[in-house]
Specification:
Blueprint: E1 3-4, E2 11-12, E3 31-32, E4 36-40, H1 46-55, H2 57-60, H3 72-80, E5 87-93, E6 98-109, E7 114-122, H4 130-146, E8 151-157, H5 161-169, E9 173-183, E10 189-198, H6 202-214, E11 219-220, E12 228-229, H7 233-250
Parallel strand pairs: 7-8
Antiparallel strand pairs: 1-2, 3-4, 4-5, 5-6, 6-7, 8-10, 9-10, 11-12
């Protein structure tokens, strides 16, 4: 949406209600879901988090900025050294009570109401599960509903196909490709791909995608193996974003 200045015929962005009121900074609170629980990351999570990291370190850390820890002590040190401007959570599988990964809210800009999910490390047992999807959803819901952000971002190495596919499946919209964006610690160049969900899209993603997809009725779970989904999240998020775009055109 835009407005047209009568005297110049220039198009400008609309006035945002409450623009002068900053969003809230994330608190170290437990975020509870049906399948997973996000707990503020602490030293007590280090043993199980190290076990996750050690399961396939080369693959898990291929696109990370940090290196695989060599033991529990290094994992504890990494947790203790996290900067105050980034808030980290442990991802707990409620079915087992075990730590299966970590993720953070970062690049937090309350004044401009933008926030990013990053430092995502989901262990092998989380791959393509309801737990991982809900872990991301709990962040998205927290950012928009509780904290009042307008942008929720996902950025990844442009060569990280799995991360790019996950962003699309989760309902993030591709926004651009930053060439020669970083020089990594090992001297390699990194291009970065940007995705985001904006506040206008969130209600559609919530009602048409995440809530129906995460509902137990969406899964056939006979105990013989991993639950089988009836509706694909990628189909639901695609529909939700289309409806959001249609609604925005009417504004």
């Amino acid at each position: 949406p835009f407005e047209v200045v009568a005297t110049t015929a220039c198009r400008i962005g609309p006035v945002v209600p409450g623009a002068s009121e900053p969003a809230k900074f994330p608190e170290r609170v437990v975020l509870e879901g049906r399948y997973c629980r996000l707990e503020p990351l602490e030293a007590k999570h280090a043993p199980e988090l190290f076990e996750v990291s050690a399961a396939s370190p080369e693959r898990l850390f291929q696109y990370m900025f940090d290196s695989p820890p060599r033991d529990v002590a290094e994992t504890e040190a990494w947790i203790a050294s996290r900067p105050a401007d980034t808030v980290h959570w442990a991802v707990i599988d409620k079915a087992t009570g075990r730590v299966e990964g970590r993720q953070s809210l970062m690049r937090i800009n309350p004044a401009q109401k933008g926030i990013e999910i990053g430092n995502v490390l989901w262990g092998p047992r989380l791959a393509r599960t309801r737990v991982a999807t809900e872990a991301q959803w709990l962040f998205m819901r927290y950012a928009f509903e509780d904290l009042g952000y307008r942008r929720y971002e996902w950025k990844c190495d442009a060569l990280n196909t799995n991360s790019r596919n996950a962003a699309t499946r989760f309902g993030f919209t591709f926004e651009g490709h930053f060439r020669r964006h970083f020089l990594k610690a090992d001297g390699r160049s990194r291009d970065t791909t940007w995705f985001a969900v904006i506040h206008h899209e969130f209600p559609f993603l919530k009602q048409l995608a995440y809530e129906p997809w995460l509902h137990p009725d969406n899964f056939d779970d006979d105990g013989s193996g991993p639950p089988r989904q009836r509706s694909k999240l990628s189909d639901l998020t695609k529909l939700a974003l289309a409806r959001a775009a249609e609604a925005e055109e009417v504004l």
